[in-house]
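Pipeline run #58 for the internal structure catalog. This entry was flagged by the ingest filter as a single-chain record with no existing model, so it goes straight to prediction. Upstream metadata was stripped on purpose; only the residue string is passed forward. Reviewer on rotation: M.T. Logging verbosity set to normal.
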Amino acid sequence: MRPLPDHDTRPGEPAHDDAPRNLTSPTLTIMKRPVLLLMTALLLTACSGGQPPAAEPQVSASFAQGGEGPAFTYDPALVPVGSTVAVTHAEQDGATVATLRVTGLLPNRTYGAHAHTRPCTAASGADAGPHYQFSEDPVTPSVDPSYANPMNEIWLDVTTDANGAGESTATVPWVFPDDRRAESVVLHEKPTASHAGHAGTAGGRPACVTVDF
């Protein structure tokens, strides 16, 4: 009796052992997956420019007369009812960055704007207190440029465009202490002065928004 062949082959066909083999090992296949994921993550980072996502607003509101706030207008001729305000702030590496955005204000006008020490009320912009100062001036009201300046306070003067919209950003080289933080942003009727005897002044307070700094 003839021995049976090791493989079931037909005449003229190569034996199964001679067929092309898949040279990709399970180990190589497993290693490819994390490399692919890493390359995908790097590509996504490159496409995003490596920038962190934009900060969410601490407050975004419409100005109203009276009510519960957080945004109040005391002079609708300068800050109309229904105009809007948004404030963001972020603290990183010992610095604070604050941004103010407004819409619906008077066109082509510069408003003074500063962080203040107390929250707003419906009654009066004066209730927001003085400007927040990282190093506090022992003299009040503070009009000394050594204290009333955009590095010791947060100045957010904003100039509107033809549609009454505007945006400003302030960066200061400090962060708020946990036990002493600003609590509002006040809009003023004039640009902020910086000369001695008038430093930090910007006229009346037509509007105020409470901000959770």
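catalog note: The radius of gyration is 32 Å.
catalog note: The first strand starts at residue 59 and ends at 62.
status: ready for reviewer M.T.
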